[in-house]
Amino acid sequence: MNNPIGIFDSGVGGLTVFHAIQKALPHQHIVYFGDTARVPYGSKSQRTIIQYSLQNMIFLLQQKIELLVVACNTSSAYALEELRKHSDIPIIGVIEPGAKKALNVTDNKKIGVIGTEGTIKSGSYEKALRSLDETCTVFSKPTPLLVPLVEENWIHHRVTKEIIEEYLQDFLNKDIDTIIMGCTHYPVLKQVIQEVVGDKITLVDSAESIARELKKLYSAKSVQKISGKYNFFVSDNPEKFKILGRQILGEELDRVEKVFFSDAWVMDTFEK
Ligand code: DGL
After folding, report:
1. What is the pTM of this model?
2. Could you tell me the residue ranges of all domains in the chain?
3. Do 41 and 118 contact (CB within 8 A), yes or no?
């Protein structure tokens, strides 16, 4: 168990997933890639998301990862199958763990899902939930403005709360008892979302669900008792990544390296 786990996201939001995995598997080396040059993914087409996700995976495979976590919900929704066609290592997305967790915690099987336009349009959470339990009722809603609010570090801003109220008001008269936060950035807003929906609704954090799955997967394997080493790569603006990273992780990221995606590589991957 010496090779790292690879995690990729469209940007900094996937650090919520990194954080949960780091806590669950403190001895595991992790390589994180945030595609900060091309964020957001949530409003892009499936074809573009597949292209970007393949490039991100190729980069992480070059770092000799043994397992890939697709932290980005939009990539998990649109590109997981395609990624699996191109690599033999285990590839885990966030949709299924989130759906399983929601079904574990719901009492009345009325589940709300919020995510980017792409994630909601793909219907992936709905499909995953209904394939696990066809008697559940799913209410989905794209909430795209929440991503830039987190990127802007407006986590406790009054405007953020107002926008969440506006987005979630139609969930509140539907007797929903569970909401899946189907986007990497939303766990950062968990406290505000909870204030808006009240404490009778359980919020499901895909980051925690995937960390629990990985812990199960790794519990059978023997691990070295050393602290995990972490490498962070981004495709642009490492300084901004560090600032938001500190906000999400509550600690300093020592080193964030910028990766140069050459045009030739982009074209080459696109043609495949
Ligand atoms: N990482 C994306 C997701 O979880 C959110 C940010 C974006 O739109 O790129 O869907």
Report:
1. 0.93
2. 5-93+208-271, 95-206
3. yes
